[in-house]
Amino acid sequence: MDCIFCKIINGEIPSNKLYEDEKIIAFHDINPEAKVHFLVVPKEHICCADKIDSTNSQIIAHIFELIPALAKKAGLENGYRIINNCGEDACQSVPHIHFHIIGGEKLPEHIK
Ligand code: DGP
Description:
By secondary structure, this protein is of the alpha+beta class. The protein has a single domain, classed as HIT family, subunit A (2-Layer Sandwich), CATH 3.30.428. 21% of the residues lie in helices and 22% in strands. The chain has a five-stranded antiparallel β-sheet, covered by helices on one side. It is globular and about 35 Å long. Bound molecules: 2'-deoxyguanosine-5'-monophosphate. The site of 2'-deoxyguanosine-5'-monophosphate has 13 residues, from strand 2.
């Protein structure tokens, strides 16, 4: 499958990895929007939030259970923003579901 994040997951494309386990990977965004900006991505190829259902929601729960520890590991002691873009109107550019974790500085009220 021609998916950038699947290629990162299988090691074909290098990434600056923050965390990995059997279900998920977290790596720093190539184009950071703030001092700290990393992505949390399930290894299973789910295209977007619109395709979350009872067969895959455990992976999404796993991601959210880990986000506090990952944020701490990344030094986000004073809060952070979690963003998920779903589909064309949201300008999702990589069609493999991922959660942006952004912080490390005071963020504007709205960030793309
Ligand atoms: P979105 O627009 O929500 O689909 O965000 C996709 C993000 O993925 C965007 O912030 C840039 C990041 N990105 C795209 N390609 C790569 C890559 O090859 N490596 C890394 N580390 N990040 C990437």
